[in-house]
Amino acid sequence: MKKLRVEITNEAEADYRESVDFYAEDNRETARFFAREFRAVIDLLRERPLIGALYVDGTRKKLFPRFPYAVIYDVHPEQITVIAVAHHRRDPQYWVHRSRNRSR
C-alpha cells in the first residue's frame, strides 16, 4: 500500500499544541518527547492506516506508546484525516461532533 497523505484538522492541531504546552510548562524535554512520539504515530499511520482500532462513527484510534493519548482519525482513499489528539482522561466523546461534521 502506498503512503497516504495526512491532513491534521485545525481542532486536532489545537489539541496537539495544548498538550505540548501542558508538558512544556513542567518539562521542555518531556514536551519534545511528546512531539516526537506524535510524529512517530503519524508516520506509522501514513504507512499502515488501518493499524488503529475501529472506534466511534467509523473513525479509528491509535494509542501513543508512552503517553496517555490517542490519535483519532478517518481513513479516506487518498489521505488520513486526524480529527483529534485525545487525552485518555478527557471526555472520550468530546470530539465526536468533529467526525460528524466531516464528509466521508
Walk me through this protein's architecture.
The chain is an alpha+beta fold and 104 residues long. The protein has one domain: 2-Layer Sandwich (YaeB-like fold). It is built from 3 helices and 5 strands, in the order βααββββα. It has a 5-stranded mixed sheet. It is globular and about 40 Å long. The relative contact order is 0.21.
What are the main properties of this structure?
104 residues, alpha+beta, YaeB-like fold, 3 helices, 40% helix
Count of helices?
A: 3
Q: Could you give the distance between the termini?
A: 20 Å
Mean pLDDT: 90
What count of structural domains? Answer: 1
CATH architecture: 2-Layer Sandwich
Give a count of the beta strands, DSSP E runs of length 2 or more. Answer: 5
Shape: globular
Widest sheet: strand ordering: 1-5-4-3-2
Assign the structural class, choosing from mainly alpha, mainly beta, alpha/beta, alpha+beta, or little secondary structure. alpha+beta
Q: What sequence of helices (H) and strands (E) makes up the elements? A: EHHEEEEH
Radius of gyration: 13 Å
For this structure, the CATH topology is: YaeB-like fold
Sheet bearing the most strands, described?
A: 5 strands, mixed
Which residues form runs of ≥5 with pLDDT under 50? Answer: none
Q: What is the helix fraction of residues, given as a range? A: 40-55%
